[in-house]
Amino acid sequence: MPNESPHYPAAQWTPHTPRLAAKTPALILDWLFDQGSLTRRLTRLSTDNFSVTPLFEGWQPLRDDECLSLGLAPGSEGWVREVYLRGHGEPWVFARSVAGREALRDDGLDMEALGSRSLGELLFCDQGFARQAIEVCHYPSAWLPAEQAADDLWGRRSRFDRGALRLLVAEVFLPALWQASAAFKEVR
What we know:
27% of the residues lie in helices and 32% in strands. It is an alpha+beta fold. Strand 2 (77-87) and strand 3 form a beta hairpin. The longest helix has 9 residues, at 175-183. Removes the pyruvyl group from chorismate, with concomitant aromatization of the ring, to provide 4-hydroxybenzoate (4HB) for the ubiquinone pathway. InterPro entries: Chorismate--pyruvate_lyase, Chorismate_lyase_/UTRA_dom_sf.
């Protein structure tokens, strides 16, 4: 599956830059580049009405941009986990986490056992994981579940490393999150 096919258009991932900061609202930048646990922030915003809904978990060929970030050959197979992070039952964030087959097997992390638990909470509780730089983009609508497919949704991704294991976590902020963020005063 080439990264730039009609089914998988290219994404332009970028780090925090002065140009990006100048043309992006402060509230959006705050969510995109927050270094803390997104799970914890969503839990606070939802006043503990947070949940995770798994959409897909399994082995499949990874996208080219994911292979590049993970240091894998194009077309490599990896574990893919797609979920909704929900507040008050509404999908606030679509998350896609991927890892290479060999590194995942060698590390022993059982992604399949997560179920409706948050991967983010695991990553932030395990001191062995080191978070790499956050990159952002307008996430391609073709990469989203059909019911959330929309143009110009902000997404971010970062890689979490533990030894040879690299987990790439992408999070896409859905319109319902921005509505909730405006409606509820966030306590940080």
